[in-house]
Specification:
Elements lengths: L8 H23 L10 E3 L10 E5 L3 H28 L5 H30 L5 E5 L4 E6 L5 H14 L7 E6 L1
Parallel strand pairs: 1-2, 2-5, 4-5
Antiparallel strand pairs: 3-4
Helix pairs in contact: 2-3, 3-4
Amino acid sequence: MKKGKVFGKHQVVLALMLLALGGAVWLNMKFSSNEKYMGEATFVNDSEVSSGEAVQTAAKVETEDYFEKAKSDRQKALDEAQETVEESLKSATLTDEQREQTLGSVKEIALRIEKANNIETLLKAKGFEKAVAILGESDASIIVKSEGVTTQQTLQIQDIVTAQTEIPLSNIKIVTIK
C-alpha cells in the first residue's frame, strides 16, 4: 500500500457491498409481513389484492335467499345453454366438425357443473352449512355461510378445490357470508 492513501479499491468495494447488504435487509424487513403464512387467506375489503395467495372476502347478504338464488340462477343458465346447444345440433347446416366442437363444449360444461356440485357436497361434509362453488376455466370462487373462516378451514377449502379441479391456489377466492 502506498503511503498517504487512506482507502484502497478493496476497502471501497467492501464498504459498498456492506451498504447494499444493509439496504437489502432494511427493504426486506420493511416490505415483508410476519403475519402471513403460506396458504393462509388474505382478507380483502374494498381494495384489490394480488399477492399470489387465496383471497378471502366477507359480504353481508341475506344468506338464505342468496344461496338459493345463486343455485337457481346457475340452473337457469344451464337450461338456457342446453336449449341453445339442442337448437344448434338440430341445425342442418352444421358440419361434423362443428357438431363435435359443440358436443365437446357440452361435455366441458357438464364436467364443470359436476365439479362444482362435488365441491359443494364436500364443503357441507366438512361442516359448512351452505356453500356455492362458481368455477371458471382458470379460477374458482367459493362462497360459504360463516362468521369467519379459520386458517384450517381455508386450507380445507383450498384442498377440496384443488383436488376436484386443476385450479392453482392463487386463483381461488373464498367469500364468507354471514
